[in-house]
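Protocol step 4 of 6: structure prediction from sequence.
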Amino acid sequence: MADRQRDPGWWLASDGKWYPPDLRTDVVVQAEEAFAPDTWEPHATMKVEDETVIPQGLTRLVIWGLVVASLLLLVAAALTFQYGSLLRSSSGMAVIEDAKLVADGWSGMGVLAMFIVGSLVLSWTFRTSRIMDARGASGRRWRGGWTIGSWFVPIASLILPRFVFAELEKISQVPFDSEQVDDRWKSMQRSTLGDLWWLLWTVSLVVLQVSQMLTLDGAEDPGTLATVATLAAVGYMALAGAGVTLALVVRNIERDSRR
């Protein structure tokens, strides 16, 4: 080491000193290590998603989406009841038509919101089912494609989604700390809240279908139209109740899975 170049082969290091050729490798390594804290920025740490944990962000989105859609449906139910009352009271046609337009508008928004949130529920259910698979839950029946297809099977869709959620409820109750869940979940119990959700969901579908059938018959007398409006309002209330209870079921599954 020297303060000046003593030979053409000598080289200038980052510390301002001159070194002979045979020391180039060792000195470069030492200099890099010595100056690294001041000249290098640490690399960002990559966050690896845990495949055994239900994502809280998606869960919150589903819950709040269901709550908002349910509130819209409750408003629609109240306005539809009001429309039915106007039909029975033989109010003026202008008042009745205005009430019908308002009720139809809110009903459309509520049903559309519930439809949009429904796609989020399907995504959450499918993803949660795969997470339960990653936890090693064995002996499952309602998994994979059933988490989505169960909603679209004619007639059977009135009961199959409950089987899917009942299975997820049971598995989420099994403590998971790297030990495989296996078939321990089968000894767990499904929730009463989940049964209430399924009951409200079924009632809403049946009642709304009946009201739709009466509408398709082309009924024009105020009495029949008032009955249709009342049935539709009851259906909206039941659907709103199903939305709120399903939000609670989703919250409970996510919460239990973190124990």
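Step 5 (inspection) to follow. The two ends are 63 Å apart (CA to CA).
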